[in-house]
């Protein structure tokens, strides 16, 4: 009876075909192991699987039959002629395996060679392809490479068949034989095994044949289209949007459990794989991949499982603890063995924050209203504090919100409750029963943006820079914890008192798992477009680097006294402006060094932006310098008071310039005095004006060039700018010799010197990296931006000279 139910199937191999008897209950895993024996291969059976030829390309998206399926389940679904015995798992050091079993070496070589021939026309390294072809000729001849042996090979197979077309074009066919003979001494002493291993090692570098690639979506829901890369060297990585940079997500050794689920969306079904990492045991931050194909999802699950089992750490832990939890918590798409709801128990949120009783909290008044909740000023009476009370802000979730929104509030509380920093609003606890309340530290002065608008003109520059430094310290703290805020803006910063600000609103914050360096957000949720980095706008990728960009915009808001970025254009126009490489202009009171720091935060390439740990000390230096200048300005104003009538001499002012390309105009400082200028000779006739014009004209010559000029031309142009600036300084010194107070001119000269120093620094970087196409354009845009800063500072210096001369003229006129 058993005999009558059996089938004889044909399995393809890279050495030919084998026949095999199968019962209806024979599993795919059993078929593969039996085929390995017949090849024959005597070791490393774990490396093999049954690949589906009809849906596979040799390049990517290799699909394998689920090892748990019975033959009866697949017999009518696929043609047995399309089943290929293939090496599925590549060891990290395959030489150890292939040297122990030559049959594995031969099979691996044939499989990789088939893959190489399918992609060799796309490879650009002609020299590497030529050397690989010479090694194959050495294998084909099984003897030394000589004139006679090459002639025989040409007659039997053709020498050109060993090389792709671009090699033949590069080497010239008539000289190919000579080139092969010239290379032959390099492999004269190679045995057959040595040739195979050498080819494999070279092909590994050239083609990355040990890395499988699958199309999927990163994240739940619609997700972001990515290529998932799996292999012993790549581990678990993704290539987002065909970008050149491949991002590491995790190591196989850190994967604790793998869960899958089916998701229905309208009339389609999708398949999700969730990776729970060993450093995230509660499953708070799983890595989620979504697939359109059930077969692809099953292939990826078992590929992950296989590499996890091969991981040295995994094998060591398994030998120590035989009762280790199963890796696949609910089986695979074709063999589920656990209810999907069981995964919820694994991924439940932790309860690190304290739960408060609503009876201990009294709401007093509304501070603000939002789409999903309101914020109240309240009083909290801690039970252990007796009669003492604490002023708090209560963030109350609206009644009737869906489960998903409530869960977001609790996730925000869970993350916020872990934080303890002097410049981060403290979370006291949560009232978990409906409506959910988050009880937070109360900041008496409210939002920073409103605070700046109301007190414009009364807040010193040193205070504003101090605020920036305080925020950088809190963000450096978050960076160390791998937490990204994702919503940095002046509206989400609260003012505790006139000298202290605190970061708030962690509703969009995420903590990255170990090995992750970015978070890809789902579609549909509102995001702060005008504050976001280019990679966040294009691909919804958020990272510590995107937080740095947003922090740069937040600093711009602070130094612009609460003005919103790009406030007079639409979101779409702002995205286009950023895409063209344009940046927010320097605020009037912002120093060159501080604006320089903003420009670094706004680099297109996230890798070129500074980290918060490097921003913090730089802002400390800028803050110290701002305090010193503020003290000097106060002393100067006291010195300029007239003792006879108590009138103030004209207040120092940096007048606005027409060419600064401001996004918008702001009301002038009410404390600045408007001076009626006396009639003077034409400014164009003064030496200082002519020298300033030469500086600006030279910079315009640089910036008017449509394409990147040669490095030598740029160096000469920058050198001429420096010569004109030195001439300007000499003429200014001659002009202001009779003026008593030149502190405003000194400050403007220091600013111009600093900005020119940064221009020279950008020139050096452009010179050093001009051969690297991926960063050259970015560095050139940065250079041009700094050139505009130099031109602006030259004009500001000239206007400072005019202002001091005018003040001196008025002072003498009243004596």
Automatic annotation (TrEMBL):
Keywords: ATP-binding, Kinase, Nucleotide-binding, Phosphoprotein, Transferase, Tyrosine-protein kinase. It is a single-pass membrane protein. Residues 630-686 are annotated as: Disordered. GO terms for biological process: cell surface receptor protein tyrosine kinase signaling pathway; signal complex assembly. It is found in: Membrane. Residues 633-656 have a biased composition (Polar residues). GO terms for molecular function: ATP binding; transmembrane receptor protein tyrosine kinase activity. GO terms for cellular component: focal adhesion; plasma membrane; receptor complex. Residues 7-315 form the FERM domain. Residues 361-619 form the Protein kinase domain. Coiled coil: none annotated. This is Protein kinase domain-containing protein. It holds the Pfam family PK_Tyr_Ser-Thr. It catalyses: L-tyrosyl-[protein] + ATP = O-phospho-L-tyrosyl-[protein] + ADP + H(+). The keyword Metal-binding does not apply. ATP binds at residue 395.
């Amino acid at each position: 009876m058993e005999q009558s139910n059996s089938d004889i199937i044909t399995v393809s191999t890279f050495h030919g075909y084998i026949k095999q008897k199968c019962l209806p209950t024979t599993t795919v895993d059993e078929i593969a192991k039996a085929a390995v024996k017949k090849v024959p291969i005597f070791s490393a059976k774990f490396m093999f699987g049954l690949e589906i030829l009809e849906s596979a390309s040799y390049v990517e998206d290799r699909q394998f039959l689920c090892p748990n399926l019975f033959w009866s389940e697949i017999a009518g679904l696929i043609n047995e002629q399309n089943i290929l015995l293939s090496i599925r798992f590549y060891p990290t050091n395959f030489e150890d395996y292939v040297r122990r079993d030559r049959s594995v070496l031969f099979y691996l070589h044939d499989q990789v060679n088939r893959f190489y021939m399918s992609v060799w026309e796309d490879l650009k390294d002609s020299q590497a392809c030529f050397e690989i072809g010479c090694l194959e000729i050495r294998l084909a001849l099984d003897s030394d490479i000589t004139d006679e042996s090459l002639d025989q090979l040409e007659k039997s197979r053709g020498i050109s068949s060993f090389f792709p077309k671009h090699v033949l074009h590069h080497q010239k066919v008539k000289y190919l034989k000579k080139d092969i003979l010239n290379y032959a001494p390099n492999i004269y002493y190679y045995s057959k095994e040595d040739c195979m291993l050498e080819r494999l090692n070279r092909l590994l570098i050239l083609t990355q044949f040990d890395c499988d690639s699958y199309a999927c979506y990163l994240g739940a829901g619609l997700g972001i289209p990515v290529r998932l890369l799996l292999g012993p060297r790549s581990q678990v990585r993704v290539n987002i949007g065909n970008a050149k940079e491949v991002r590491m997500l995790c190591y196989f050794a850190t994967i604790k459990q793998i869960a899958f689920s089916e998701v229905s969306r309208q009339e389609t079904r999708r398949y999700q794989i969730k990776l729970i990492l060993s450093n995230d045991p509660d499953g708070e931050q799983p890595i989620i991949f979504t697939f359109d194909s059930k077969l692809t999802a099953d292939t990826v699950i078992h590929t992950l499982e296989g590499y996890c089992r091969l991981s040295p750490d995994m094998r060591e832990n398994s030998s120590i603890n035989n009762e280790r939890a199963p890796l696949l918590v609910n089986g695979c798409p074709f063999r589920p063995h656990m209810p999907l709801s069981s995964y919820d128990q694994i991924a439940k949120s932790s309860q690190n924050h304290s739960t408060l009783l609503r009876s201990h909290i009294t709401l007093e008044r509304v501070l603000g209203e939002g789409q999903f909740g309101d914020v109240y000023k309240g009083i909290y009476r801690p039970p252990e504090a007796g009669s003492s009370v604490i002023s708090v802000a209560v963030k109350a979730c609206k009644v009737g919100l869906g489960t998903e929104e409530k869960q977001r509030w609790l996730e925000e509380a869970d993350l916020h409750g872990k934080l303890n920093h002097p410049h981060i609003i403290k979370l006291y606890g949560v009232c978990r029963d409906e409506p959910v309340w988050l009880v937070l530290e109360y900041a008496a002065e409210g939002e920073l943006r409103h605070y700046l608008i109301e007190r414009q003109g009364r807040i010193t520059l040193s205070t504003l820079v101090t605020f920036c430094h305080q925020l950088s310290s809190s963000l450096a703290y978050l960076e160390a914890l791998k937490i990204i805020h994702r919503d940095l803006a002046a509206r989400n910063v609260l003012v505790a008192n006139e000298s202290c600000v605190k970061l708030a609103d962690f509703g969009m914050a995420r903590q990255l798992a170990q090995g992750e360096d970015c978070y890809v957000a789902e579609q549909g949720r509102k995001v702060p477009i005008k504050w976001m980095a280019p990679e966040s706008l294009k691909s919804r990728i958020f990272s510590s680097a995107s937080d740095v960009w947003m922090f740069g915009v937040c600093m711009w808001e602070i130094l612009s006294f609460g003005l919103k970025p790009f406030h007079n254009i639409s979101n779409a126009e702002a995205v286009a402006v950023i895409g063209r490489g344009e940046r927010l202009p320097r605020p009037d009171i912002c120093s060159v060094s501080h604006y320089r720091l903003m420009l670094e935060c706004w680099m297109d390439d996230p890798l070129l932006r500074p980290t918060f740990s490097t921003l913090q000390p730089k802002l400390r230096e800028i803050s110290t310098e701002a305090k010193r200048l503020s003290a000097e300005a106060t002393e100067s104003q006291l010195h300029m008071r007239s003792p006879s009538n108590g009138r103030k001499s004209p207040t120092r002012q940096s007048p606005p310039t027409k060419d600064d390309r401001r996004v918008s105009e702001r009301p002038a400082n009410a404390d600045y005095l408007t001076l009626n200028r006396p009639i003077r000779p034409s400014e164009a006739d003064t030496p200082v004006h002519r020298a300033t014009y030469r500086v600006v004209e030279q910079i315009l010559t640089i910036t008017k060039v449509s394409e990147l000029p040669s490095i030598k031309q740029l160096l000469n142009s920058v050198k001429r700018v420096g010569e004109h600036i030195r001439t300007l300084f000499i003429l200014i010194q001659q002009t202001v010799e009779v003026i008593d107070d030149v502190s405003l001119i000194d400050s403007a000269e220091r600013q111009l010197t600093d900005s020119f120093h940064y221009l020279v620094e950008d020139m050096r970087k452009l010179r050093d990296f001009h051969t690297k196409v991926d960063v050259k354009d970015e560095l050139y845009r940065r250079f041009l931006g700094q050139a505009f800063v130099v031109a602006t500072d030259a004009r500001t210096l000239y206007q400072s000279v005019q202002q001091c001369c005018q003040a001196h003229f008025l002072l003498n006129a009243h004596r």
